[in-house]
Amino acid sequence: MYKTIIISDLHLGNPFSNWKILQKFLQENQCENLFLNGDIIDEIYLNRNNKELSEEELKFFKWMINLKDTKVIYTIGNHENFDKNEKIIEKIWDKYNVKVYGDYMYYPNVPEFHSSYYISHGHNTIFKNKITDSPYMLKKINKVIRFFGKLKKIHYGLLLKKGKINVQEGVEFNILSKFSKNIFKIGLKVISRYKSKLKKHNKYYNCNVICGHSHTPEIKRIRNFLYLNSGDWLESNTLLTQELNGHWILNYLK
């Protein structure tokens, strides 16, 4: 039994999502609170390819948001179909009949840890920047990746994955090698100046900060507060769990 489980970047609908691994974990582990911290449904991929969630994926999603004896909080990400500049407070997402938030303040009420946590996906807060906020720039980046994928000349496990490459619209990032993906992830942190934003949020809210979005799972102490990131379900298959005593663990699943 956990106090809290935090998941982000599941990307349901995306063919690379490892949601079945998560399903098994949730079936075997109960929690008081479940945070679905953005990019749970990959509407960007679904819309670009004129698709909907499969019956199996939709059944899992409905089961997950209605877990028995669990408070489920859904904070939206950049892949969900919402105006990224809209301030969302307890809004019903009619398409999936679920209440969503733009961000959330979590108070564990654990005697050993008198702490509070600011939770957001991060695309509109910690990792906000002019480059990834620009649809034009993102399209250009995807075009370059697709070009190299089709050209297949740079294919040494550095820029692109080794082996057969299936270049699909909406999943360009997945044909990159691990090295290339890490460069993108580091670049996102650098251009976002994420540490300075973390410090500002900590000072303003007097709390710890939990994000997703960067696909980089970590638990890090910065000065006098914690920064936690739950990772993703396309590569790392990670989630955050908080034990009943308030202690956090970063879980890697297979």
Describe this structure in words.
With 254 residues, this protein is an alpha/beta fold. The chain has 2 domains: 2-127 and 207-252, Purple Acid Phosphatase, chain A, domain 2 (4-Layer Sandwich); 135-182, no CATH class. Helix content is 28%, strand content 22%. The chain is built from 6 helices and 12 strands. The chain has helices spanning 19-28, 43-48, 55-65, 135-151, 178-192, 194-205; strands at residues 2-7, 31-37, 71-75, 91-93, 98-101, 103-106, 117-120, 208-211, 218-222, 225-229, 238-242, 248-252. A 7-stranded mixed sheet has the order 4-5-3-2-1-11-12, with no helix packed on it. Strands 6-7-8-10-9 form a 5-stranded mixed sheet, covered by helices on one side. α1 (19-28) links the parallel β1 (2-7) and β2 (31-37). The two termini are 20 Å apart. 32% of the residues are buried.
Q: In CATH, what is the homologous superfamily of the largest domain? A: Metallo-dependent phosphatases
SSE pattern: EHEHHEEEEEHHHEEEEE
* Gross CATH architecture of the largest domain: 4-Layer Sandwich
Largest sheet: 7 strands, mixed
Supply Rg.
18 Å
Which residues form runs of ≥5 with pLDDT under 50?
Answer: none
Total separate domains: 2
Total number of beta strands: 12
Q: Distance between termini? A: 20 Å
What is the beta-strand fraction? Answer: 15-25%
Which strand order do you get reading across the main beta sheet? 4-5-3-2-1-11-12
Given the structure, what is the number of helices?
A: 6
* Class inferred from helices and paired strands: alpha/beta
* Average pLDDT metric: 88
